[in-house]
Amino acid sequence: MPIYAYRCEECGFAKDVLQKVSDAPLTDCPSCGKSAFKKQLTAAGFQLKGTGWYVTDFRNNGSTPSTSTSTSASSTETKSSSSSSSDSSTSAASAA
Predict the structure, then answer these.
(1) How far apart are CA 17 and CA 4, in angstroms?
(2) What is the domain range of residue 25?
(3) Which of 11, 23, 59, 96 is most exposed by smallest CB count within 10 Å?
């Protein structure tokens, strides 16, 4: 149930009231008894924290960045060329 802030326009008495959305608004001030008790407009009582959905999320429309693909491909080529050079030196030593 939401909490509504009320304030009397006559005496200035303020009170927060826990009410259902379907309940009728209060009108009689508990302090002075006049029917000047009005519901106040207040800020929302929650905050959005943590990671979430932002405009910048999925900005590339689902495609992967090209820099990570080229980096992994070049490291694979370096590993295969170094292993082939060690294989050829091993085979040359065994042939002699």
Answers:
(1) 5
(2) 1-42
(3) 96
